[in-house]
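Self-study notes.
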Amino acid sequence: MDLELLELQTEYLNDLPDKLDLIYELLLSIEKEEDIDESLNNLKGIIHSIKGSSGSYEISFLSELCHSFEDELDLLTKDKNKVLINCFYFYELLKEFSDFYIAGEEADLDPFYNKLSELSHSNNIHTSTSSSKQKDLSKKILIITDDEFFKDAIMLSLEKLNTKFYFLKKTRSFKNDDDPDFIFLVSPEKADVKQLKSISPQTQVISLNFEDNVNFLPSDFARILISHHLVRDIRHGYLALLQKEENIHIEKEAHPENILFVDDDESIHPLVKVAFKAYKDIKMNYCHSAKEAQEVLKSFTPDLILLDSMMPEISGKEFKKLLSEDENLKDIPVLFLTGLDSKKEIEELKNLGAVDVICKPFKIKELAGQVLKIWSEI
């Protein structure tokens, strides 16, 4: 794990107990109150914030847990007594995970996923292994393995991504006129690596390994470390690689000189700073509210505004409307960040005049590339 990310994760996890205490207090308030709207909205805001930020900090289980918790909270007004019991169970699972998880250490999360599955199925909530919408990828995939189980697992992992598959049992059967976009190798041997490098040096090879200490793999081979969650591991690793490949093409393009970032979630700010750290020629200005941004805009003219859609007092949507009504600010491109990844939400944000929408959680190493790619297409 990247040392910088490890430090950020550790700091984030150290701050988590305070948020959990607040969640517990709000659940108690909801239990006692007849009019639960204010407490429920505050609770939804905290859970929503943890869902987005933990995903961006690459603590996937925490993000998935909060995603299911959010769905549960939506049922509270329909059957308060029954659903509230489940909400306390979600809180207990959050606390248990917070006490258990240590950044950078290998951990068996199967018991936590099993508990989450039991909680979610108790109210027929669907848990998602990927919280962001993925676009049509149209890639040609070669799978080299003589193990039918792994062949089926890879196909299942990448289903609905418009991928075309073909198969070989042995590396020696591969010819350079096959021309795939990606090659999947399962626990490759040295001979496999040598042959592929000589025949097709430009093709991206993805090695599926059970251990992380395979020293003979070239540095340009992508590695996916697989666990008991085989399908999820393969899918997440593949999609991350596609995003990285796409971002490489736009890194050297012209980019904005000044960016204003507005998000009320304090935990997101360090991630964005790390994401843009390599771009020394981009001046970043950070705000925690729309009101603060309004003051900054009196003396700072950004080429692009990165704006969180959900903020207290003045929401991102309301702030975008205010910008559109200001003759001096209406032409500044606005790129929304949102933890609500429904088609309706994204369309609503775009209809406000946003150049695009990035769904939370985002990956630190991919955010700058996503932003600059969108900028290059304005």
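Second protein, same conventions, sequence then structure:
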Amino acid sequence: MTQNFLLGNIDSLLDLLSTIGWILFAIYAVALTLQTIFRRGIVFAFIQLISFRILLPFLLIAGIQLTSLAVVFIEPTQVGVVISVVIPGGVRATPLPPGFQLIVPLLEDVIEYPIFWQTYTMTAIPDEGEVFGDDSIRARTRDGQEIYLDVSIVFRIDRAQAVLVHIDWQNRYIDDFVRPVLQGYVRDEVSQFTVNEVNSGRRSDLQESLDLALREEFASKGFEVDQFLLRDITFSDEYAEAVELKQVALEQELQALFEANRERELARGLADAVEIQAQGQARAIEIEAQAQANAFRLIGEALSENRDLLVYYYIDRLSPSIQTLLVPNNSPLILPLPELTESLGVAPTTTETVEIAPTPTSITPATPVAPATGG
């Protein structure tokens, strides 16, 4: 950094040395002239002005001065346009690159132009743009809606075209070229889109078309464009309100659709639950029926082997309160169960029946008769 500082200030150092030299030379010449006048007279003093004692320091200081005028140091971020009175057209065709360069003293001069990237911003935010206050670009869409755009462009002077920039714009290229071109192209491109397109996915199309158009225009004037930025778009209050109402309606519609889907899913879940329950009940009935069928099959097999089992099963299923049974006379007699006789307080008896005809026979348990007692 120190080396760059010294190299960049050599021409300034030469200017300083030449200025100090001229001051010292003037003091020396005046003092020598006055001394000669007092000693030898004014005529001899004027003759002494062209003497070696005066010419030598004069030529030395003049040499330093001419050297400072001839040597030019161009910063790495600059190029130099040489204005010359000895070249037709008054300017060198090729700009001076960065570094030490030589020009013709007194007959040529150098004007430096930056070749680093510059950003020019036009925005509604007061302290962010190049112009204080609301500097956004007002434009009108194809359907007549007014919008405001915040934009930035990153550009630089093409070092090979610096002479063209100097001839066309000098140092006025920001105000006289960049700013009006931005405004004009943005308004022209916006007029090709509707407000809904600008506020939708086609915003990127707007930015791309502006970027391409500005690159071509800037290149034709000696500038390079790195990128164009569409920073923000502000819509009118009426359109913003309409968009907000539309968004609210859309949100409500989505909410209603969500509720409907939720109810539909809930109903579907309930239906599935009922179906699963019905399937479970049907399965249970099927299993029960299968179990009964197996039981009946086993009973049938048992009855086929022992027919008396059916009579026993029938009597076993009768109510315990039944004490009289009517059976055919040709059927085996089945006595009451022990529990029944014990509850009646009598001993079990056996009664034989005479087979006369197939008529029902009444069987009653024996009742004890009390013995007669004397009065």
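Instructor comment on the second fold: The longest strand covers residues 223-235.
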